[in-house]
Predict the structure.
Amino acid sequence: MDRTQINSIHSRCEHFLSYHRPCSLREHLRTIADSEYCDVGRDAYGQGGFVAQFESEIASLLGKEAAVFMPSGTMAQQIALRIWADRSGVPMAAFHRTCHLELREENAFREMHRLDVVLLGTSEDIFHLVEFEALSQPISTLLIELPQREIGGILPTWEELSAICSLARERGIHTHLDGARLWECGPYYGRSYAEVCALFDSVYVSFYKILSGLPGAALAGPADFIAEARPWLRRHGGNLQQQTPSAISAKLGMDRHLPRIPEYVAKAAEIAVALNSVPGVRTIPPEPKTNLMHIMLPGEPESLVKRAMEIAEQERVFLFGGLIQTPEGSRTELSVGDGALGLSGARVADLFERLLQSPMQA
């Protein structure tokens, strides 16, 4: 089944196990145009207007002196690592082996910035304090992703996270937070975003994931660090003529979804219990720390996706649109948003039981 068919079925559903109810581009752009934030005015190459106001708000929310709006997190994190490496004189960072920079950026930090990396952790678990304590190579920056997307949204405890960051500071190592999904960590830590970010010298956040905004990101940190980041933004080709629509979209997403994050996390916990009650199904982790988890299913992806589309057409519930094959079975990512709030755990369990039935049983 091709992506066009899957998207067509998705558009006709009423409930969605992952993310939010769909919003058309026309609706999204109309919401931006009708927003009061348009009255603030537009920026020019990132200066003035709503973008400047939004950058100040983000800096305050994250407890940092300043922030800069950027088109992408890929850009933001490479810039952060480059600045800290230049300041330390050590072109070496450390981060988890499933980090976005390692898996999904075409080796950009090496090719563009001549940086190298020490990889930490395993393909199924975060790295722990004992591993960082044993690190002997000189590094300029320790990058930590909260939560770890590729391994199911796992988070370190607050105590271990604090200890790791404290040790880095003692060793003169800069700390950078990959906060692409920082917004979803609040309920687990029970602390404000500023309290979490206080452990780090710099932080990146994304606006198009759970916040459902147009593509965009922010890099926050000390004022002199952000001043140094702005020329790098132009060097990366990211100092666009205007970013106001994307920044307004980000702000609207924050207004709508940040207050509901606890609902999404609670619903994810309910769904995980339901899924783990279905024979052959398990979640990673068994008890999700955020609204993010991975689902493991027996069987091969093609037939499971086909069956999921049949259920979607019959029940108007979209379970998933893609799976990857692993040695343990088929795997997919689940990030709970408002699209799942109308689904009970019992109904989710029933739908997955139907999903795993043979065609004759169904």
